[in-house]
Write a structure and sequence with these properties.
The structure is a homodimer of 232-residue chains. Chain A has 232 residues and is α+β, with helices and mostly antiparallel strands. Chain A is 46% helix and 25% strand. The first copy, chain A, has nine helices and twelve strands. The radius of gyration of chain A is 19 Å and the shape is elongated. Chain A binds a DNA duplex (30 and 30 nucleotides) through helix 8.
DNA sequence: CGCTCTATTGATAAACCTCAAATACAGTGG
DNA sequence: CCACTGTATTTGAGGTTTATCAATAGAGCG
């Protein structure tokens, strides 16, 4: 059963285990500690000393940083099948971010010695992890650039476009974002305020690009949004 | 002689070669192609297909992204002893950034097969590289957060503080930044405009925190700057 | 129903960008 | 050495974007 669940996880990152042997695979799974998280519970806090590295099996995590003034910035969403917290474990540092479940979420965690020993024995795995981290670096760098050069409206459009890719579900009414997503979340993810985010989305709802309920957004005209991103 | 030059490079990233054997070391060095760059010459362009990964032996590189509107954003400076472009080589992608020397700069480049085979044989090296990339990711995430939440003046102060750490030289008059650094550079690195950057630095010069000439900045009162960063 | 969290909207002000123009500086060739 | 050219820097005026603050309405939950 556990096996089924694991194997059902589909993602590039889960591939990290594809090329290791059955023995290693079992070692990974056996050494892992499982956790079931209710919505909005904290998996680890920014600043905590890091012991575990996690694979999300179900649900989503939100990675945030809190500024000294108490403003929350969303660094990234972690979808099911993706890894997180490898940084802190490998570099022997505190977690640089807080991880919070945004819905019912199941994770497996491995401790530092396990992860390290597996990577030492299988350079393929280390290399695979490297390539995952590079992709994440690339993504943050792109968002950094956009934040430097684009206006809020553009960035909100990009944020939605990104979420479509990672959490978009096709429905009859358009593409529905399959995670609870408040205006505040969008603001924290885009680098703006709730108010500005709300104004922009209200506007888009008025012209029929999106439909929204509380913490729920459906993109009715994805192409309009994408064009808007490209046109600027 | 070449050996001397290599061994003179001091940095965490150069450590990446510390724990490989003499044979591997020579293999790395032999397979490497050397390049001497004049100031302001391009090592590789954003979008070019990536063949080499580089170690900077002398000088500095500036990594930038160009937006579609032609605005340049500085992603990072690469100091001597540091690696760059490993991302593109490993992930088999085009370079995501442009690398330009900002002064006379010497680099060694290795091609993909070399790098890959070394990492496959030495998982330690892959792991070491991982930890380097994690640190870079952490840095960009921090700057991302700052860009989201702080005002320009704060960010300029942080930028100078960062540059002090990586390129600061103690002199009688204060800490001198040992790289050519225009107002435009500071703007591109901080996410603002030349004009705003210039105004802020003029102000700081007026109150005696810094001294500046064309493309040269000396921080006269580093503690004032650091306090300013922390106080906000 | 009352409580809490989310969303909306308007008014106001601050921060910052844009554009224009002047000045300073370094390097080049005569 | 000087004039010339191209780049870097500064400064001002004006306008736009966006944050801030305040107030209200709606949604979900016990």
């Amino acid at each position: 059963m556990k096996k089924d669940k694991i194997e059902s996880v589909e993602s590039q990152e889960f591939d990290i285990f594809k090329n290791i042997t059955k023995e290693h695979y079992n070692m990974v799974i056996k050494s892992g500690s499982r956790e079931n998280l209710k919505p909005r519970s904290i998996l680890f806090h920014q600043g905590d000393s890091a012991k575990y590295c996690y694979l999300v099996e179900k649900g989503h995590l939100k990675l945030t940083k809190l500024t000294e003034q108490g403003r929350e910035v969303i660094i990234r969403y972690i979808n099911s099948g993706e890894l997180t917290a490898a940084m802190a474990v490998l570099n022997d540092k505190d977690y640089p971010v807080t991880a919070e479940s945004i819905e019912k979420t199941e994770v497996v965690g491995w401790d530092k010695p396990t992860i390290l020993s597996i990577m030492k024995k299988n350079s393929d795995i280390a290399i695979k992890l490297l390539s995952i981290v590079f992709e994440r670096l690339d993504e943050v760098q792109n968002r950094y650039m956009e934040l430097c050069t684009e206006k809020v409206e553009q960035r909100v459009a990009r944020t939605l476009a990104r979420l479509i890719k990672t959490s978009g579900l096709k429905t009859v009414h358009g593409i529905c974002l399959d995670i609870p997503l408040s205006r505040q979340n969008i603001a924290d993810y885009t680098g703006t305020t709730v108010f500005t985010a709300s104004r922009i989305l209200s506007e888009w709802e008025k012209i029929g690009w999106i439909k929204s309920e509380r913490e729920k957004i459906t993109i009715v005209k994805p192409h309009a949004l994408i064009n808007f991103v490209k046109d600027f």
